[in-house]
Model the fold of this input.
Amino acid sequence: MTEHSVDSNRTCPVGRSLDVMGDRWSLLIVRDAFDGVRRFGDFQRGLGVARNILADRLRKLVDADVLVSQPAADGSAYQEYVLTRRGESLFPVVVALRQWGEKHLFDRGEKYSRLIDTDTGKPVPVMTPRTAGGSPLPPAQTRVKKVV
Amino acid sequence: MTEHSVDSNRTCPVGRSLDVMGDRWSLLIVRDAFDGVRRFGDFQRGLGVARNILADRLRKLVDADVLVSQPAADGSAYQEYVLTRRGESLFPVVVALRQWGEKHLFDRGEKYSRLIDTDTGKPVPVMTPRTAGGSPLPPAQTRVKKVV
Done:
């Protein structure tokens, strides 16, 4: 077994990502932002989250440079929350969560929303870590190399 | 913009995954399980988490069939927590979180742990959603098709 310590969490990119995104609401907000939601009221209605919690999470996501707050594109008085480049690069995280849920958390015949490739109209293929040669990479063929 | 409602969360696989895994500690426990950690005391020391919180999260992960609790492989009196097949299939989620953190959350020159392909000794390539043809699939080329 690998030697573990609290210190290793500071040098672990998984831990650091979860410091920023390890909250259910934050990831749901980002999911909805990928889906085109931009306004406070639309996030609020879609998520059914308390306004104070939503305001807190939006502020944290702006502080973390995941979302940017900007005047509405239509010239109205609304503020809009839009994914930054850093936010856009959470796409694999959202897709991985989606595909795990699809595979394991619905009963046979139960319906769920699908992520579609708009060029083909077909569901996005299952994403998996791959070797440099392109083969699927099982967890057993990996190890974490700690910072020494 | 897509029509959103609280109801859509029930049919969204991302939301359902986060119902199970949308907690920082749960994802850190799974990360450590991939890294070979199996015993309560080792999770506890590695994560620096309060024992009651760890016990709660381990129980929930066992209830969700992500971990299984079993007698220690060495015949000692310890219980071990091991990833089930459902837990193992969280590998893309952990890799996606890792790679997002690697790209965005470390300063230049700051060291972090690496996930290595043990067959090559090289870091695992960046994982991304792909089209059926194997090309990288940008978020803009996708849409969520809701359950009607």
